[in-house]
Amino acid sequence: MREPRDLSALAGDEVVVVGGGFGGLSTACYLADADADVTLLEKNGGLGGRASTLEADGFRFDMGPSWYLMPDVFETFFGHFDREPADYYTLSRLDPHYRVFFKDGDEVDVVPDRASNRETFESYEAGAGEAFEEYLAKARENYEVGMEHFVYEHRERLRDFLDLDVLRHARGLSLLGTMQGHVEGYFDNPKLQQLMQYSLVFLGGSPHNTPALYNLMSHVDFELGVHYPDGGIGAVVDGIAALGTELGVEYVTDAPVAAIHGAWGGFAVETESGDRHLADRVVSDADYAHTEQELLPPGKRQYDADYWDSRTYAPSAFLCYWGVEGDVDPLAHHSLVLPTDWDGHFADVFDDPTWPDDPAYYLCAPSRTDDSVAPEGHSALFALVPVAPGLDDAPERRERYREFILDDVARHAGVDLRGRIVLEETFSVSEFADRYNARNGTALGLAHTLRQTAPFRPGHRSSAVDGLYFTGSYTTPGIGVPMCLISGLLTAEVMARE
Predict the structure, then answer these.
(1) Cα–Cα distances in Å, from 307 out to 200, 232, 284, 288, 303?
(2) Strand 378-387 relative to strand 98-102: parallel, antiparallel, unpaired?
(3) At a CB cut-off of 8 Å and minimum separation 6, what does 342 contact?
(4) How many whole angstroms separate alpha carbon 154 and alpha carbon 175?
(5) In which element (H, E) is residue 123 found?
(6) Where are the beta strands (DSSP E) in 187-271?
(7) C-alpha distances in Å from residue 451, one per residue of 311, 384, 446
(8) Measuring CA to CA, how many Å separate 461 from each of 235, 236, 440, 457, 468?
(9) How far is it, in rounded angstroms, from Cα 407 to Cα 312?
(10) What is the pLDDT along the chain (498 residues), one digit of tens a residue?
(11) Which of 104, 136, 167, 250 has the CA that lies 20 to 30 A from 97?
């Protein structure tokens, strides 16, 4: 991966970063390293944005991201500052990477050993082992070319893609079609198709609306591996925040921003408590739509309400955090529970929004790996069911769905939790909207549809306000912790060029 371009033009600038998610934390580090004077304002009591942590009664849960993928991106990020991840946290590679419970009673482990995974594929379909190798070769090509020439490059305008160098590198990439069509070209068995598509959950899309290019996620999954940072993703947040402190970033928590004003050739960022922070430039890692619709006056917005209403949003989620007495066998650290036909669940999210009656969902049991996240003799477990953004999640609806999920976990994953839950919290559409100012309560932001990928995502710079910039999952390169880290670099480079 390339080194950052010259950021020295940022030296001496007073910059306020709004929001302490991974995009904001990353941007703040790059700016401070370039000798800008950086203050980061975070709405909530802790840093991390959606990657927050729940601690109660001896249990600890990652409330948002819980998969540590693309370790090369974290190495590149810390390497920019002459550090490495091991300076701040330790990693363990999971084995299995994850376990899949199909609702017909079938069970599959995806493991670190490539030959074993090939045998698994071959056992489901004659010739699928060879197709598995071919698929991963294509995924690796897409990953290596895509990361170097597209993800780490700032190409937020369509014309940025229309030059000979870009076209040369793009030759052979899976740029057209959907993930569903791409996977069907390799595998007939629907379970094998699902194994190659499950990672779309991390991109907030479905097999039918996500570009085929994202088959690169299979390289991430099968080749780069799934890791666990001791202490969870919260330990990564703490590590990046510590790096920022070393570089000179000032963090202010419990400081929800009420407005961004122009003032004396720069900005005044006003918090709800009435504090005013003056800045030459402002970077927003808050929800993009919230920033434009709520923090800026109408004449300073790039997009109107109709634009935001017309976007395709990534799913929200129904989350249950459970402190459980005893073990949660046969779950792995990461487990997926999948119907044999999951098209209905995606339809319930994207086509006809409703609470899924045959959901695909994720179970995370970090206590299988980390004894520190639960008291002795107990397990930490959470369930995440992707649901449509904007759903009514009134208490009675949530209670009925909780009961439904408990029954489903017992039936299809073999874990009866009833009578053993000693701690419980739920989190859903309403909390995503209230806690993170997330449009329609989306858990992730804009989905990675063909019309919302690369130059079709909102830009890093405001076209309406000089000196206002954006970072995080709404911008390029998009959704996910690694992508938000990279967005911080791209935002800093845009700022330095201007």
Answers:
(1) 24, 37, 19, 12, 6
(2) unpaired
(3) 194, 360
(4) 18
(5) helix 114-124
(6) 227-229, 250-252, 257-263, 266-271
(7) 9, 27, 10
(8) 30, 27, 24, 12, 6
(9) 31
(10) 566 689 999 999 999 999 999 999 999 999 999 999 999 999 999 999 999 999 999 999 999 999 999 999 999 999 999 999 999 999 999 999 999 999 999 999 999 999 999 999 999 999 999 999 999 999 998 888 878 777 667 666 555 444 545 445 455 555 557 888 889 999 999 999 999 988 776 667 788 777 777 788 889 999 999 999 999 999 999 999 999 999 999 999 999 999 999 987 899 999 999 999 999 999 999 999 999 999 999 999 999 999 999 999 999 999 999 999 999 999 999 999 999 888 888 899 888 999 999 999 999 999 999 999 999 999 999 999 999 999 999 999 999 999 999 999 999 999 999 999 999 999 999 999 999 999 999 999 998 887 887 788 999 999 999 999 999 999 989 899 999 999 999 999 999 998
(11) 104
Residue with tokens 């976990």: 409
Q: How far is CA 325 from the centre of its chain?
A: 30
Record the pTM. Answer: 0.94
How far are the Cα atoms of 89, 274, 281, 305 from residue 483, in angstroms, in the given order? Answer: 20, 33, 23, 26
**In the chain, what are the domains?**
8-58+70-90+231-311+460-497 (3.50.50.60), 117-224 (1.10.405), 313-436 (3.30.519)
Residue 118: φ, ψ to 5°: -60, -45
Question: Measured at the alpha carbon of residue 23, what is the angle toward residues 22 and 25, in degrees to the nearest 5?
Answer: 60
Using only C-alpha atoms, the chain has a radius of gyration, in whole angstroms, of 22
Pair of tokens at residue 34: 């370039």
